[in-house]
Amino acid sequence: MKELLQNSLYLKMLKHLYLTLIICVAFTTTITAQHEVPTPQNTYNRDAISLNGQWQYFVDRYEAFFYDFVRTPFDESDLWKTDFAALDATAKDKTDRLEYSFTNADSLTVPGDWNNQREKLFYYEGSVWYRKNFTKPELKKGEKLLLHFGAVNYRADVYVNGKKAGMHEGGFTAFTFDISTLIKDGNNSLVVRVDNKRYKEAVPTDVTDWWNYGGITRDVSLIAVPDSYIENYHIQLDKEDATLLSGFVTLSEIVSAPITIQSKALGIKKELTPNGSYKIPFSFKINESVTYWTPENPKLYNFEITTGTDALKDQIGLRTITTKGAEILLNGKPLFLRGICAHEENSEKGGRAATKEDALRLLTAAKELKANYMRLAHYPHNEYMPRLADSLGILLWEEIPVYWTIDWKNLKTYKNAETQLSELIQRDRNRASVIIWSLANETPIIEERLNFLKNLAQKARELDHTRLISAALFKENLGDGKYTITDPFSEYTDLVSFNEYLGWYEGMPEIIDGANFTFSTEKPVMVSEFGAGAKAGFHADATTRWSEEFQDDLYKRTLKLLDRMPNLAGLSPWILFDFRSPRRMLPAIQDGWNRKGLIGEKGDRKLAFYTLQKYYEDKIDQSLKD
What we know:
Jelly Rolls, globular
């Protein structure tokens, strides 16, 4: 009996070892067989088949459909042969134990977050499985099919006909898979596991001050492209010499035929020779009569890039953005940024702002405020924002979610942040409205963080040297009403930007009257945030917190402080609209909303809205006199 038991145990150990080897081999195969490709730029100007609409879904709170009971991912092993397409009423054997199924499953709208579509999912953080069936489009000879996601929050595992296309991490940037070898004629099944759990090593980390909306939150589309297609390009005035048009074109595969860049309005038609390279740089003189892009005259030129196999159009504004001493220069002329911060949220309908109409609502409100600039906090917003800002004449600060307590020592965390930065810059490098890449918000002054941000700054400049680099820093209180910036990272940025909440988190508004700032640098200074909370419609005297009068009084005092601040080149108060936050739960006042908006969640303008509007109108009048 003892020998039998020993043999039995030995067999079990061999079996376990065998299964482990299979899993390891399968894992290696899965990793190397991923289908993710660099997201082609300017997908909005390509012919595409939209997969937006109703997607079936089910909730997988314990992730039993993704992991086995010892937390091994099923899709990393050949031991699991599930065909997602078979998870419906057509299962071959009705006696099969199907504990998950899309049969008769409810549906969610894509793009959109699940929190505001289903009350039971309002606070949900975890895994949700989506499915969308689609018909294979007709492809020409030599074409491949790309599956493009505008964004999924936070992790997406994507399967086509039961085969894994790949995984993407990061909730606010686009990603793309080449699914040419995964599709079949006729009906195809697309399944996405979306996981929005927060964790320390992520970007952002597990603590934020905005709502963690889960879901497929931006457009999904199928895009047919030739084997060699235009993957990326940069067309902009040379930062050092505005008479030159400089940049590059990057191809997915090398071609021998010349590449043509053309703009009829500018009288440009130039041929580039690939010379055996994927990335082809260029620089050439342009017509002196070019109209520079400005907020007052947001002129866009039509450009067309053609290769031997591909052609792509874009609408691009030509401008330069530089600094000189304490000034920001747009096209060589001093610029004062009359700004406002914004989250990617539509408070009136609830949830993540996902559509062109949502973006237009935010930008239109900023125009009403007389702003010429918006800080898109605290993560990359959807692509409709910069494209509409290009046409409406609103300058943008774009940001990645390196926010508060990032895991500074974790190399994987850094690579995640760098990838999100790269994906943002690749998407928006041709948008004239985008003038600032911001690398962080309110992060602690420690050595590990400084190294983290220095590396990000270096990466940003490698990818795009034509824009300004910044971050929202902390101020330092020197005592006796004196404040300054001592953060060493300001030495690596083009702007000295900082958040200040005197009178809200520090004392009462009267403290602002005796405050003064000094700076040891001659760089332009930006106040990236200030503000106070107020519930729309709640009126009291100016000393009553949460009243519109309190917020308005703080704004009036702060604007006077800014007028005496040296080197001030702009401001972006916090924030345009009230927005959802699980950190803000004061009953009858906050109720899950951050109330620092100048506009309430139902669209009501607060008193401070008109105070800031008047301040900006006066700035415009003064600039006209100057």
